[in-house]
Amino acid sequence: MDKIVVLDFGSQYSHLICRRIREFSVYAELVPFDISVEELQKHNPKGIIFSGGPSSVYSSDAPLPEEKIFDMDLPLLGICYGHQLIVNKYGGKVKRANKEYGSSLLTIDNDADLLNGVGESVRAWMSHGDEAEEIPPGFKVIGHTESAKAAAIASSEKYIYGIQFHPEVVHTEQGNEILKNFVLKVCGAKQDWTMKGFIDSELEKLSKIEGNVLCGVSGGIDSTVAALLIHKAIGERLKCVFVNNGLLRLDEEKEIEEMFKNNFKVNFTSVNAVKSFLGKLKGVEDPEKKRKIVGEEFVTVFTEFAEKNGPFKWLAQGTLYPDIIESGVSKGPAAVIKSHHNVGGLPDWLNLDILEPLKELYKDEVREIAKILEVPEKLFMRHPFPGPGLAVRIIGEVTPKKLQICKLASKIVEEELMEANLYRNVWQSYAAVGDDKAVGVVGDERKYGNIVMVRVVDSIDAMTADWTRLPHGLLEKISNRITNEIEDVTWVTYTISSKPPATIEPQ
Ligand code: XMP
């Protein structure tokens, strides 16, 4: 398989470069900027990309790639900081400039190769402090903006290119075309990265493993797809366990059991641990304590299952690529392979090796595999759900009554968004409940009932979020249904705080 290697100099967009390249079916991998040439050669790349980064090439601690990389004679594209590295290395001059952040008009001066077919001018996304003042001998300017005279440079003979802007972000028009020109035309990489191909090669690898595999499934897409792949490869030697902690969405445990047993036909056990989880949570109000209790209880139940149903050789997890690498100048991916066990804290004496069949994949690639494996669409279109479940959506103590209100109200929110065809457009949607009460009139009587908070947010990655401007008619319908259908609820509020300063979950 042809591969493009992206050296990570710490830009928040480094990951996106790989994603964009994989979107046109070429495999791309992010590696630390200080990777050795020997390591790099093992990847056998068709081309190299230097990512952007927050540093200046002139600062004393500027991250630099190993010198010998420039002697590898491979096509090279530098983006932003990577562009400045190239200018500096080949004898040009980088100067401090006014910070430029946002969209600029890039005029194309030469569309022979890298900028081929993108038109006469495009909007390009800039995010930089330094810029190229003099270009190196042997290079030519192929694009400029009003403030950056050498916004794109090329040495077509050496196959080396530098661009000041970020082609990987959606705000750069034709950004994908520019990446394609580099990857497909300059590097000559073949478009042979497909999810069907991935499934075939992964099944071949998985079918060689020996011993039994234990897989904790949550009903989420990652653990489900990991389990299905392993099941396809080793059948009954995979045992899936699902822990029902009583903190799930309404009837979710039944749906998950039905799906695994009847649709997927895998070896599946649902452990009903509702009593022990809710028992441990009794009287606990502090959100972090609740999180800790849920995590610890999960490990206890899971360990008991493993002891009774073992021996197991492997613990399978649905870890994804972004989980195992963390962009950062000082610590490249290899250095920060975290103790990223989704099932953290399992006792060492269980002595399980970790199996992570999805660890090279992004979420959208996992979704594609889910489609190929015929996972019901309902599952992979579902909104993210926090590990500690409703324990963090119930403010204060988790009581059976608040749990019931939270489940029923959330169900109404989801149903109404689906009915309005808005469910897929929003990032998360749910109802939360606390101990606040307000007076209402039920029948002819005054009633002091619970207040339910409806939260619907838009987000791209959960790092920031904006409250969704739902139509008033829809809010009214949600409110009416919640107060009519759920006993003891008298008021419904809609949360209009964005993140930051709020968070997505109330706790
Ligand atoms: P916040 O509330 O921090 O949430 O804005 C960001 C994203 O993370 C999810 N979330 C959690 N997920 N364990 C999880 O597995 C947790 O303790 C947890 N807390 C928040 C939240 O649903 C949102 O998608």
Low-confidence stretches: 327-341
Structural class assignment:
alpha/beta
Number of strands: 18
Cα gyration radius (Å)? 26 Å
CATH H level of the largest domain: which superfamily? Answer: HUPs
Tally of alpha and pi helices: 14
Q: In the CATH scheme, what's the topology name of the largest domain?
A: Rossmann fold
Key phrases:
507 residues, alpha/beta, Rossmann fold, GMP Synthetase, Chain A, domain 3, 3 domains, nine-stranded mixed sheet, five-stranded parallel sheet, 18 strands, 32% helix, binds xanthosine-5'-monophosphate
Describe the 3D structure.
32% of the residues lie in helices and 24% in strands. The chain has 507 residues and is an alpha/beta fold. It has 3 domains: 3-186, Class I glutamine amidotransferase (GATase) domain (Rossmann fold); 195-380, HUPs (Rossmann fold), CATH 3.40.50; 399-494, GMP Synthetase, Chain A, domain 3. The strands form 3 sheets. Strands 2-1-3-4-9-8-7-5-6 form a 9-stranded mixed sheet, with helices on both faces. Strands 12-11-10-13-14 form a 5-stranded parallel sheet, sandwiched between helices. 40% of the residues are buried. Residues 291, 384, 386-388, 392, 428, 462, 499, 503-505 line the site of xanthosine-5'-monophosphate.
